[in-house]
């Protein structure tokens, strides 16, 4: 993938699976230096680090803890000397009808999917110079709503609002801020039951689920110089659902 990323320095959160892993591998393959983080899957982290090789870092961090966000930013300063792009990808899914949701479940999803984006972006702001980029991974579900997932879609809609506001706030510093809104993707870690996958595929214009690599391509386009005049935008990568 040639996204004008050679020599760029990236921080990609949630890099050991799905869109995050695809983004990390594609960025490294394009000549970027990457720091990424994971929460608990030590085996996946070790496998990713072995595949990346030297010049990259895989760091354990709980992004709901401000001290971990600060430590991750410090790792980027030490290892990379700064950042050309921050990709806020880490997140959790959530299900439950409104009458079933409790404070703990609401806080769990909002904490990682929205609050952690704010906390880490704030912690990394001093590392982002003129011409750098922030890419926030939201969800196309936030644009249309999904019954039984109000906390998840609320968090992802919040990411889109944060993106729009930060593009205006950081524009004078020549820091671009954009979002990617993926649809339903194929997953080897926790695949959808076949009847559900088939139903969702029928709902898309392209008649299939997406692949993490296809979302990663959009993320890296926004992170690189090819998108140098694009800010405040949301690229919806959902197959026309």
UniProtKB/TrEMBL annotation:
Oxidoreductase keyword on record: yes
Keywords: Oxidoreductase
Enzyme kind, highest EC tier: oxidoreductase
Gene Ontology terms, MF aspect: oxidoreductase activity
Domain named Ketoreductase: residues: 8-187
EC number: 1.1.1.-
Top-rank taxon, per record: Bacteria
SUPFAM superfamilies linked: NAD(P)-binding Rossmann-fold domains (SSF51735)
A Pfam family per the record: adh_short_C2
Family the entry assigns: Belongs to the short-chain dehydrogenases/reductases (SDR) family.
Name of this chain's protein: SDR family NAD(P)-dependent oxidoreductase
Organism of origin: Sphaerisporangium dianthi
């Amino acid at each position: 993938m040639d996204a004008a990323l050679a020599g760029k320095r990236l921080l990609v959160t949630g890099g050991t699976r799905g869109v995050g892993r695809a983004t990390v591998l594609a960025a490294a393959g394009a000549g970027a230096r990457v720091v990424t983080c994971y929460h608990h899957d030590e085996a996946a982290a070790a496998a990713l680090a072995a595949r990346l090789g030297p010049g990259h870092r895989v760091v354990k961090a709980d992004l709901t803890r401000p001290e971990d966000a600060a430590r991750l930013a410090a790792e980027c300063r030490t290892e990379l000397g700064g950042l050309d792009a921050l990709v806020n990808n880490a997140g959790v899914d959530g299900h439950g009808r409104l009458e079933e949701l409790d404070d703990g479940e609401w806080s769990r999803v909002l904490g990682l999917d929205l609050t952690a984006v704010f906390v880490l972006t704030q912690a990394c702001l001093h590392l982002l110079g003129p011409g750098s980029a922030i890419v926030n991974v939201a969800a196309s579900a936030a644009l249309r709503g999904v019954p039984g997932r109000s906390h998840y879609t609320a968090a992802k809609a919040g990411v889109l609002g944060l993106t729009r506001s930060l593009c205006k706030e950081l524009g004078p510093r020549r820091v671009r801020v954009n979002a990617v809104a993926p649809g339903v993707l194929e997953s080897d870690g926790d695949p959808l039951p076949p009847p559900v996958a088939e139903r969702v595929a029928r709902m898309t214009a392209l008649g299939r689920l997406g692949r993490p690599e296809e979302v990663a391509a959009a993320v890296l386009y926004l992170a690189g110089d090819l998108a140098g005049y694009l800010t405040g935008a949301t690229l919806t990568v959902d197959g026309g659902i």
